[in-house]
Structures are given as C-alpha cells and as structure tokens.
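not sure who needs this but someone in the group chat was asking about ATPase from Candidatus Scalindua japonica so here u go. i didnt clean anything up, its just raw.
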Amino acid sequence: MSNEKNEEIGRYFGIKGSTVSDVLKGVEAMAEKDRKLRKETETLKWAVYY
C-alpha cells in the first residue's frame, strides 16, 4: 500500500500512517504461517482493490 493510503487510513482511525504500515507488515507475516488468515486477507485485498 502506498504511504498516502496509510496516512489516510491512519487519519480515519486516529493513528499514524507508520503505525498502519507496521500493522500491515505484522498481519502479512502472520498470514504467511496461517492459511485461513492468508485467505481472509486475500479476500479483503480483492474487495478493496477491485
């Protein structure tokens, strides 16, 4: 995700864009090990991007 998007998401939730980035990295790392989480994140990405 672009830094601008992270900043926008951060403003919505009242957090910094860098925090959004850190959370996304953590979820991606967890998804590498968890098949169900990986599928759910792919579904969310599909819904957001398309």
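also The two ends are 14 Å apart (CA to CA). if thats useful
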